[in-house]
Amino acid sequence: MTITVLIADDQAMVRAGFAALLNAQSDIDVVGEAANGLLALELSRQHHPDVVLMDVRMPEMDGLEATRRLLGGNETEYRPKVLMLTTFDIDDYIYEALRIGASGFLLKDSPPDDLTAAVRVIAAGEALLAPSVTRRLIAEFARTRPKATATSATLASLTDRETEILTLIARGLSNREIAGRLVVAEQTVKTHVGRIFAKLGLRDRAQAVVCAYETGLVTAGEDR
């Protein structure tokens, strides 16, 4: 199956470079390029790409607002996976982007293989949370920002095992790593993860991590 991608970035050379790299992959097709958030919205609704690479800082409408509008519709509306692009490894906008539904972020100076891998990971429905910089970013902003409305009561519907798995997700472990840690089948972990998402109304692992920090289940600086 071919993964369709829209690239939103205000720098023409960045768009061209990303497009050339992604179009060289047999399973990826770039269907559009946008120089600002408004055009990204227009082209997304026109082409329905599987993944949108969204720059954080753009003119007319920044990537955060574009992401909020793109992912903020009702369940029947088209919603792509959004991968935020940023020049900085700690960016105030990224944490908010994860809260509103973005599936992760990638530094613009990441190796080319990281970009292609990220597109495939996001398209497959996973969140790009493995890099330690992502965990560090989320932990930092969860620690320094005031608590959101979420409280420990949010987690009351979870079983002990589900709470344990959510904790491991928040610490950056994959399903396979969690299965190894708990000595259970990976499919069992996937089943638990699905139930966690359903009970807490979460879209993906990115939102699960944010939820775990905001409810106090995991705090910044804890060891894995």
TrEMBL record:
GO terms for biological process: phosphorelay signal transduction system; regulation of DNA-templated transcription. The keyword Transcription applies. It comes from the Bacteria. SUPFAM superfamilies: C-terminal effector domain of the bipartite response regulators, CheY-like. It holds the Pfam family GerE. GO terms for molecular function: DNA binding. The keyword Transcription applies. Residues 4-123 form the Response regulatory domain. Keywords: DNA-binding, Phosphoprotein, Transcription, Transcription regulation. The modification 4-aspartylphosphate is found at residue 55. Residues 151-216 form the HTH luxR-type domain. This is Two component transcriptional regulator, LuxR family. It comes from Stackebrandtia nassauensis (strain DSM 44728 / CIP 108903 / NRRL B-16338 / NBRC 102104 / LLR-40K-21).
